[in-house]
Amino acid sequence: MHPFAYVAPSTVAEAVAELSKHGDRARPLAGGTDLLVKARANVWELDAVVDIKNIPELMTLTINGSGLSIGAGVPCYQVYDNSEIAAQYPGIVDGASIIGGIQIQSRAGLGGNLCNAAPSGDGIPSLIALSAVAKIASVNGTREVAIENFCTGPSRTVLKAGELLVSIEVPKPAANSGAAYTRFIPRNEMDIAVAGVGVFVQLDASGKNFESARIALASVGPTLILASAAGDSLAGKPVNDETIAAASALARDAATPITDMRGTIEQRKQLVEVLTGRMINKAVERARG
């Protein structure tokens, strides 16, 4: 492993200055569950590792009237152990609670899951479904990017050299709304999704009709997929088996999987259709309370 400097800044400004100084030969360290593996394997040849755990802004988890803010360094267990988040954002808890095991969840966070940009990232589909945005800082200021546009390919993101993910901002859920995420894995020992689906639905006051929906797919494309046609197809339709089946078929059409050691193209497409139907029903159940 290439020797590198370890830097532990206490502010965002110090962190982005250090990242900017070293360009693509520096990486932020949060949980380290991906960074250390890639550094040891020489996937990344680094001159500096910038530890973000001492930056309060990146370690803050807040929920208020405007929504939820998850600092980029906040570990998963703090997310799923929070009763307010569990009540208002159960879809996020669905994903955060299955990223690795308990030991991993004590260090790894949704920020790292997002920045790792694996198409199978379990924490990301619910964030996409819930219209979350990434807050990014650099020496030139801050910018925001919709989560569905954050990952640009396997292990690739919109982050430029010198930029740092500060937080994930999730809007407050509307009344009569619900979200859910699930995945399919071939066995417990292979903790990588063959397919995953995150769903958000908003119902009308009667709870019998869809007002809007968003559906996100994992592990069935080079990036996570916002299945816009599938989600849009639910708007204005009654909550029934026919409507849900039609949306599930559109989600299947949106998937662009490959065949590999974990599954075939047809298997993955079929899984997307089945899981989408299940998660729409689960999200509806949660929306109805």
Description:
With about 290 residues, the protein is α+β, with helices and mostly antiparallel strands. It folds into three domains: about 5-50, Uridine Diphospho-n-acetylenolpyruvylglucosamine Reductase, domain 2; about 60-170, Uridine Diphospho-n-acetylenolpyruvylglucosamine Reductase, domain 3; about 175-285, Enolase-like, domain 1 (2-Layer Sandwich). Helices cover about 35% and strands about 25% of the residues. It is built from eleven helices and 14 strands. It has helices at about 10-20, 35-40, 75-80, 85-90, 90-95, 100-105, 110-115, 125-130, 230, 240-255, 265-285, and strands at about 5, 25-30, 50, 60-65, 65-70, 135-140, 140-145, 150-155, 155, 165-170, 175-185, 195-205, 210-220, 225. The strands form four sheets. A five-stranded antiparallel sheet has the order 4-5-10-6-7. Strands 11-12-13-14 form a four-stranded antiparallel sheet. The longest helix is centred in the C-terminal third of the chain and has 23 residues, at about 265-285. The protein is globular, with a radius of gyration of 19 Å. The mean pLDDT is about 95.
